[in-house]
Amino acid sequence: MKSHRIRHQFLLEPELSEKLDNLSRDPSTTKSAVVAKAVEAFIERRGENELDRRYGVRLDRLSRDLAHVRHDTEMILESLALFIRFLITLHAHTPVPDRATQAIAQDRFDKFVEQVGRQIASGKSSLGNENGGGGEG
Predict the structure, then answer these.
(1) Each residue's pLDDT tens digit, 15-52
(2) Which letter does DSSP use for residue 113 in this model?
(3) DSSP string, 13-52
């Protein structure tokens, strides 16, 4: 079954008309096919603009939020690195611990991990803000 097509008439500037002629020189392509593809592409691009209008604000907000999270993470990692450097410097001349000292250290570490888990589960923060984040909520 042959599709139904509608005839349109329109005017083109001479330069654009010449470009259309050049595109349709290939025997497998017609001017109608080139124009139809161009109109279809134009309409689809307008649809993309609609998506930008619809979701652009949300995506921009998410990008800003992600940038804040990245910044906060970098601050946390830098703080942790400085703290570790401080501890290593502070304990540079401490003798190698024996098994009993290592067991006490492991027990303290396990208790520390448990406490962190409880704090996170309760939603409380040791830094004083309820949401656990570094900024305004």
Answers:
(1) 999 988 888 888 888 888 889 898 888 888 776 777 77
(2) H
(3) -HHHHHHHHHHTTSTT--HHHHHHHHHHHHHHHHHHHHHH
Rounded-to-integer distance, Cα 106 and Cα 96, Å? 15
b vs e for 82-118, b when ≥16 Cβ sit within 10 Å of the residue's Cβ?
A: eeeeeeeeeeeeeeeeeeeeeeeeeeeeeeeeeeeee
Name the token pair of 90. 């502070």
The pLDDT tens digits for 76-92 are 999 999 999 998 888 88
Cβ neighbours of residue 68 closer than 8 Å, sequence gap 6 or more: 135
Q: Which two tokens stand for residue 30?
A: 């017609």
- 126-134: Cβ within 8 A, 24+ apart: 133/72, 134/72, 134/75, 134/76
* CA 73 – CA 65 distance, rounded (Å): 12
Q: How far is CA 108 from CA 30, 82, 84, 101, in A?
A: 80, 21, 17, 11
**pLDDT reported for residue 38:** 87
